[in-house]
Design brief:
Organism (chains A, B): Streptomyces graminofaciens
Keywords (chains A, B): DNA-binding, Transcription, Transcription regulation
Oligomer: homodimer
Protein name (chains A, B): Transcriptional regulator, LacI family
Shape of chain A: elongated
CATH superfamily of the largest domain in chain A: Response regulator
Strand content of chain A: 15-25%
Pfam family, one (chains A, B): LacI
Strand order of the largest sheet of chain A: 2-1-3-4-5-11
Distance between the termini of chain A: 42 Å
Number of strands of chain A: 12
CATH class of the largest domain in chain A: Alpha Beta
Number of domains of chain A: 3
InterPro entries (chains A, B): HTH_LacI, LacI/GalR-like_sensor, Lambda_DNA-bd_dom_sf, Peripla_BP_I
Largest sheet of chain A: 6 strands, parallel
CATH architecture of the largest domain in chain A: 3-Layer(aba) Sandwich
Amino acid sequence: MVQIPKVPSESALPSPLQRSVPTSADVARLAGVSRATVSYVLNNTSAVRISEPTRRRVHEAAKELGYVPHAAARSLRAGHSRMVLMPTPHVAVGGLYSQFFNELQWALSRLDYTVVQYGGVGLRGDEAARAWAELRPVAVIVPSGGLGPEGVAVLKRSGARAVVMLSPEAVDGAHVLILDHGGVGYSAGRHLIERGRRRIGVVVPQEPGLGIYSRPRLEGIRRAVNGTEATVTELPLAYDEQAAGRLAANWRSLDLDAVFAYNDEYAMLVMRALQDEGIGIPDEAAVIGADDLMLGRLLRPRLSTVHLDLPAGRDLAELVDRAVREPGLAPTTHDVLGATVMHRESS
Amino acid sequence: MVQIPKVPSESALPSPLQRSVPTSADVARLAGVSRATVSYVLNNTSAVRISEPTRRRVHEAAKELGYVPHAAARSLRAGHSRMVLMPTPHVAVGGLYSQFFNELQWALSRLDYTVVQYGGVGLRGDEAARAWAELRPVAVIVPSGGLGPEGVAVLKRSGARAVVMLSPEAVDGAHVLILDHGGVGYSAGRHLIERGRRRIGVVVPQEPGLGIYSRPRLEGIRRAVNGTEATVTELPLAYDEQAAGRLAANWRSLDLDAVFAYNDEYAMLVMRALQDEGIGIPDEAAVIGADDLMLGRLLRPRLSTVHLDLPAGRDLAELVDRAVREPGLAPTTHDVLGATVMHRESS
């Protein structure tokens, strides 16, 4: 890490002409209108008719003074904000999530919501909910599980009209989009069995925070082998070359003929280690990942994978907006994760 | 995309016992203390001595009522917030940035700041600054360039005490950590020349938003070849297999002997396309990436890369805190990006 040089105290110059923050009263004075008129114009209130010249005068005065409305003051007056809070995911997110998030954010901003992501490093579950509640968001979208019914209640008591979770399971009081990661594992398992594999290893990543995805994926594979002669073997694995090298060195004694590698990045790691050990893919070991990342197509043999269909950001934004406008709406659950096997060369 | 089923209107039940949001006055009444005492206790004010039993009573009352302090109200009273705002990057971020960001966030939360990431989809430059200003952050950290002196002024007039940018260039009014991406290109160029290469192709990614990184990297390579007999050829490239395939098919007519591929992900794409075309790496084409991602070590031949040393999150957090406490501090610039070539097998 590069050190940022300490700023020497000598460079602390006397504050240069500290201008005070302009207020809507300053704007009203300069434009020669009431504060209420300033508020109507700058908040684009359609309920009140204001002439075009007045509107222009207010905008020009605001611009001249550099006035920006104060979201917190506005939300205190209105009794609620237009802020939709999303905690930052705990784990590094891939391109798939980034794309989904950008689409969601775009759709919410078109519905006049302000999306903020709140960094919850070190906070988990209901403790995190308390920190989020301090910002008084009108809605909270939790993109992964981990929030319980108590956390949901804290948020609602603090004025959140909607709590929407993307979660592997239902949670009391929240609208939940069930991401059926079991289906991802199930699809991978069915595929391997159909390709004639019978002794399936399943990578269980050891990074903290991934259990909520990896457990249902593992259970999905177990469901797929149920009633067949195929077996499932758990393969705990850290995301590093040494751990993968040990797995590959043990491969032949494990007596497996296939591996579901949790996702494409783990699959790349495992495939490389197996190839370095001289194990033929797919002959000696069929490999399948999940997420359908570009890198899987760049591997040789090309990586088979499970493609995930995340919910459309626009549909999720509409659910949030509906729930905000109708706080009495009974919490709903929807199954929203589609899973499709992309068969390539590695399986 | 999976469609979220529309919620039928029938499920809009009458609002279940709408409890009103508890206030600090409710907590004061239940605990039998003044509102000021509630505020002192819950905000951990050390200036006022309050007995342990009173403290406990306030905490218990707050817990019973489910009261959470209101950050916006507190910041209106205090005249400023403890909110540090960071815009969400426009481009998908890799693991390197995630790690830096987590460390920064952790360090700021230990200094009692609340970090929120603001989604600025569709907003650029000074227009974005206006949207950020509405949240009245006490400090703004801009992790990439794109904000001009006017945007900085808008933020400062709205009460931001510090604007800190990680940027390729200095900006009036802001503390700027200069990320010298030119040094990344320069290091890669020097390395290739030392390895005997003379006709260097430089990948220029066509994804929008990457120009602020790719332009200085290209200039850095030009600096490295300056005064040598080596030449630089720009290779515009989209991040897809077809574009890489066309580049590889043309490779021999381009008459190049090396390529700096912008980063490791582009390097993986280019290397695959060249290998599929039967072009030997590094003999016919030396390849070097940047970022030092795990995937480069998993390629064969192993990918040479430029390792970036980002500033330590803790040092950056301290700079922010210092600037908040001393708003008169003259804006400073620091060069903070270190670049080290990791020579492996591809060059």
